[in-house]
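The data are set out underneath:

___
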Amino acid sequence: MATNGQGGELYRTLTSDGGVAIRTLEATDLVAEAARRHQLGPLATQALGRVLIGAILLGAGGKHDETVQLRFNGNGPLGTLLAVADEHARVRGYASRPLADLPLRGGELDVAGGIGFGELSVVRHRRGWRQPYTGIVPIVSGEVGEDLALYLTESEQTPSAIGLGVALGPRGEVVAAGGFLAQALPGAADETLARLEANVAALSSPSRLCLQRGGAQAMVDVLVDGLGGQALTHQAAAFHCHCDEDRVIQAVALLGRDEAEALSVAGEKVEVRCEFCAELYRVDPDRVRALFPDA
């Protein structure tokens, strides 16, 4: 059965003149669910939380079952951070080193140091495409938002402002998480972009706004100030994984006959944990042996 975690709220709108597309996301429960499932340390919670939020914001405008995969491969102690989101604002992902840690920097968790330098790859795939579109840019800051803005500007030629934030409580628990994405559309007026730039500068941390009720709406209000906004669309967001026992059986089959037989020889249930959501499946050995009836 697919895993559906707690979620959040995604808002989308355009400025009154149609020059800027805006998406905002409140994702506190969603990030908390990811942290709980993967038993993330504080540093990985902040870093992966930003990546999950960024994936939803980039993927929310897709069509025809489009998915967006973000992979941060840095040389920092966090290793690989990966998130996959679909057009329905559902996301899953993981950190390869969930308990990695670093000393505080300026009194804050050092997300940039945790990620380090390396490559950010963004893979978009849509039903009907022969092959996915992949864009690769260097990780220039490790703060996630700045790196995604660079990707959107350089690889998709879409000048963008993006802000991502995760706030933790004294025990490392997620108390607020959210983000925004504002993208200039073709023909956007210079005065519109200038006002948007000022609004982005005036917007406090997304996570701080999400501490208040209606954080996604509050971000919209700040970003469209002086520009006006068209009708809002609202969408639920969720930490969601497509894994189920049938998919797990298929994965076991890919191991090959010898490996599958070794797993089932003891007559005990085979334990398989989903990398994306940490769900644990216990598969009956008879089901494993049935994969290779001639064994």
In short: The chain has two domains: 3-241, 245-289. The two ends are 29 Å apart (CA to CA). The mean pLDDT is 89. Residues 42-59 form the longest helix (18 residues).
